[in-house]
Amino acid sequence: MHILFLTDNFPPETNAPASRTYEHAKRWVACGHRVTVMTGAPNFPSGKVHAGYRNALWQRETIDGIEVVRVWTYITANEGFLRRTLDYASFMVSAILASPFLSRPHVIVGTSPQFFTACAAWVVSLLWWRPFVFELRDLWPDSIIAVGAMRETAAIRLLRKLEYFLYRRADRIVSVTHSFKNVLAGNGIPPDKIAVVPNGVDLDSYRPGAKPQELERKLGLEGKFVAAYVGTIGMAHGLGAVLDAAARLRMRTDIRFLLVGTGAEQAALAMRCNDERLDNVIFAGAVSKTEVREYWRLCDVALVLLRDSELFVHVIPSKMFEAMGTERPIVLGVRGESRGILEAAQAGIPITPESSEELADAITLLAGDSALRNRLGKSGRSFAAREFDRDNLAAQMLSVLTAVAKEGQ
Fold first, then answer.
1. Higher pLDDT residue, 78 or 76?
2. What is the DSSP letter of 11?
């Protein structure tokens, strides 16, 4: 089977959509299938093209057996609604124009969080007369409103109509959460066309272990209890609460807060740290996927946080599973399905989203109880191995694509 996968993000980018697509695709190739990924030049989230790449009309490479075709896009940093929309729309146009130069696929997949990519996949499916699968990673454009980037307007309502047009046109929808499926079903999308394949973790790559001493020395964290946030530092994550918690724990010289990644809010947060002299907060900047695993082992507790929005009760941050894989306990500031997973796994401490007081209290508790940290970490990895192993999840999605492709013959 030949799978054509359209995605805005792909390695060497390290965000959740890039990781999920890569981890699934390399397993499908290992099963004997052909996978072509169409994407843009890697630039997320800084808007700067990674070394070794160009923002060209057409580039081709092979990564772990995956055929990767990169097309031109309008590139911008991950901030600003208009510019990001131009970025998304340009990829849609480029992907559609480039698709006739590819071999004919058996099934076309378009992944969100934004759905211009899914729109391109639908058009390409019409051109090739092949089935279209919508991989649903986020409820866009509602997420734009949830982070305060835009108010409800006529443009947003038009985008929402396009969103549901694509849901109806898709031959199958693969949602990353049960909550997303419930939202779509409640809005008239037939539940039997929606499969749920959540995010997960490659347990061979994300393993528990001792702290990497060289990295520990480099960051001046020897002998420190490290509470780390690893991921995009964006508007959705409410990381001001981390700085508030750091201010509360300023006198605890044994505790450090580590923020790993870049994003739209990084500069403002760093400036605030400087203004308030929060010397217990360290910004590590962007790191590679391999380095991310080292940072997970460096931390004593993983911070998984989102803003306090009703939309985010439907979201499961993929960093939860990476923390579980490395046996790091989690402080979770997310309501809804994520909290249910954390409690079922007994993998950490849930707090009210954006509550700096509860965040500081949870970190203080874990800093003083190594037995609790150890118990939560081991329980999390055991649960991830049962429920969120990437091998099993890739096989589940492959079975969906295989069934859709057969129906389209």
1. 76
2. T
Quick one: fold of 2-200+389-407? Rossmann fold (3.40.50)
Q: Confidence band (pLDDT; 50, 70, 90) for 145?
A: very low
Instruction: Quote the CA–CA distance of 382 and 222 in Å, as a whole number.
Output: 29
SS3 336: coil
Range 216-222, long-range pairs (CB < 8 A, 24+ positions): 216/298, 219/258, 219/282, 219/284, 219/298, 220/282, 221/256, 221/258, 221/282, 221/298
Separation CA 355–CA 357 (nearest Å): 5
Strand order, beta sheet including 172-175: 58-63, 66-71, 34-40, 2-6, 107-111, 132-136, 172-175, 194-196
pLDDT band at 142 (very low <50, low <70, confident <90, very high): low
Q: How many CB atoms lie within 10 A of CB 30?
A: 12
Comparing CA positions, the residue from 183, 131, 196 lying closest to residue 387 is 196
Fold agreement (2-200+389-407, 213-387) = yes
Neighbour tally for 220: CB within 10 Å: 9
Could you tell me if 117 and 7 are in contact, meaning their C-beta atoms sit under 8 angstroms apart?
Answer: yes
**In the numeric block, which tokens belong to residue 207?**
């393993």
Class of domain 213-387: alpha beta
Structure tokens at 277: 């002299």
In three-state secondary structure terms, 224 is coil
- Alpha-carbon span 332 to 240, nearest angstrom: 15
For residue 42, what are the CA distances in angstroms to 87, 92, 311?
Answer: 12, 16, 28
CA distances to 53, 136, 138, 369 from 174, in Å: 31, 6, 11, 40
**Residue ranges covered by each domain of the chain:** 2-200+389-407, 213-387
What are the CA-CA distances from residue 376 to residues 292, 328, 366 (Å)? 21, 8, 10
Give 269-274 contacts, CB < 8 A, sequence gap 24+. 269/233, 269/239, 269/240, 269/243, 272/240, 272/243, 273/243, 273/246
CB under 8 Å to 371, separation ≥6 — which residues?
none
d(C-alpha 292, C-alpha 251), whole Å: 29
| Mean pLDDT value of segment 358-367 | 98
Interval 303-316 mean pLDDT: 88
